[in-house]
Amino acid sequence: MSTLAHTMMTAAPSADSGLASSGELDRYPYAEAPAADRVGTPSWDGADPELGRVSRRAAGSRGRGLHGQLVQQLGQMIVSGDLGADRPLVPEEIGQRFEVSRTVVRESLRVLEAKGLVSARPNVGTRVRPVSDWNLLDPDIIEWRAFGPQRDDQRRELSELRWTIEPLAARLAAGHGREDVQQRLSDMVEIMGHAMGQGDALMFARADSEFHSLLIQIAGNRMLEHLSGIVSAALQVSGGPVTGCERPNEASLAHHGRIVDALAGGDGAAAEAAMRQLLTIHPEVERVVPAPREH
To answer: 219 Cβ partners below 8 Å, 6+ apart?
Structure first.
């Protein structure tokens, strides 16, 4: 076993031991202000009364401070439809509701504006933008959609997008056979096999994400490399299965191994075929893409 594989396996916690309890994950993430300092809560029609729910992944692992938490909260509310298109967002109300400063609200709205979720105009204020304006390739929006009412569409769209990206990346990567990269890919397959034997879905998912991200990065196409974050987000969202690799099994492990073997042999066609087989393991993918043809 290589040093990298051993380090990753010993460092990654098991699926049972490294996760917070359900109560901890769902806990309201904002610090409570003293009762005497609290300001009256404005009415946000259509929003959940608590306004404090966050995704399990966000609450459990992000740790970005008040600014990041507010971006998460407002982003999820917009994507879920709690704050619909053209809804005005009044910074003063947001600050009062979440007990954060004007600076935190202003910077959070700027982040959301960069993602296409809101727009700020003189004499109009800040308003929620329609879904047609959102940057749907933004990893955060991918995650938020995976938790919202569009999760089924998100699952299908991510599968379709990966189908267009990864087979080509696998073919191109066969022409860039650096030994260190080959070893890292082999390490990830070895870790996935170990994780499957241990029943450790978390370790399997981490190695799987590393494998696919690395494969795209070595394809030698900078535009494809720019999309590696999308594939990583697709593999990491926990709101439901979105790929053919979300459940550790012998079939997915075997296809990953075939990809590595094809890359080692410089066989782009075989690498592409193995990737197509990997992406068609589950029925929801087969409904949107044809099965690979045998040559």
So the answer is: 168, 169, 170, 172, 173, 176, 225
User: Which is nearest to 78 in space by CA: 35, 26, 29, 135?
Assistant: 135
Alpha-carbon gap, residue 188 to 193, rounded angstroms: 9
State the Cα–Cα distance between residues 89 and 109, nearest whole angstrom: 9
Kindly give the pairing relationship between strand 88-89 and strand 118-121.
unpaired
pLDDT for 64? 64
pTM more than 0.70: no
Reported as a pLDDT band with limits 50, 70 and 90, residue 43 is very low
Q: For Cα atoms 229, 235, 237, give the angle at the middle one, nearest 5 degrees.
A: 95
Q: Which of 269, 286, 23, 291 is nearest to 159 (CA)?
A: 286
> Using a CB cutoff of 8 Å and minimum separation of 24, what contacts does 74-77 make?
74/108, 74/109, 74/112, 75/112, 75/115, 75/117, 75/140, 75/141, 75/144, 76/144, 76/147, 76/148, 77/47, 77/51
pLDDT of residue 3: 57
Q: What is the pLDDT of residues 78-132, one digit of tens each?
A: 999 999 899 999 999 999 999 999 999 999 999 999 999 999 998 889 999 999 9
DSSP string, 210-258: HHHHHHHHTSS-HHHHHTHHHHHHHHH--SS--STTSS--HHHHHHHHH
List of E strands, the chain: 88-89, 118-121, 125-128
- DSSP tag of 178: -
- In this predicted structure, what is the pLDDT of residue 151? 82
Task: For residue 121, give both structure tokens.
Answer: 């105009």
Q: Return the bridge partners of 125, or none.
A: 121
Strand-pairing partners, residue 127, are 88, 119
